[in-house]
Model the fold of this input.
Amino acid sequence: LFWCAYARNKRSLGLDLEDAADRRVLLRLVSGADFLIESECPGRMAELGLGYEHLSQVQPGLVYVSITPFGQQGPKAQWAATDLTLVAAGGFAYLSGDADGPPLRVRVPQAHAQAGADAAVGALIAHAERRRSGRGQHVDVSMQESVTLATMFRILDEPVGMAPAERVAGGLQAGGVLVPLRHRVRDGWVTLGPSILPSTGHFMKRLLEWVAEEGFCDPALAQEDWGSFGLRLGARRLPEDAYEPVARSLDTFFASKSQAELMSAAV
Done:
């Protein structure tokens, strides 16, 4: 099921890269390709004559993307890894779990998904440059680095003078404040990722406008600068109870809705 979801609407062709005839088929495909994405152990594709240096001669505009546990170079480049070891090495597990318990791995694999998203962005940036210069590039993606980026740099809070990041359950820590993620609805529970950062503040504004329209909060609450709210909380530039009016309003609002009603509104 996992593979079916990720491979939906994709065409496939099975090739044995150990076989010379199949490698020739791949070379023909590469000659007209925009992108090649591989996840072999660093150096293996070059051994087969399929590394970036070789394929860029076949197709100078090729965007060649390598996704590996620890990148193409460095002391761990040849190390094998699983999702568990990568979320630990990237710091993600440190932030997952209860405050009084050990670090935990998120149930759905994260490292490959995060690296895949970063690889897609890197590939598109390289493609934009190719449109300008006609030249392809080798995009090197380290899953460990992708996992670290996915922590939203929380593991760096303390070194830059913010409150140390801690594991919390059912919420998000911002400074000394626990921002709830779970809310009870009429027929169960829902999870809401609070949109209190620069790229997502407009979502919180729209949500609170809806909450205010239904009489569950003061309309002025929606006019808060939600794009900077999380940063100000984390830097302790807001009182620790600053989010409490929002949490109370959301609790009462969600309690009046069913999961289906909220899903319908969300999509």
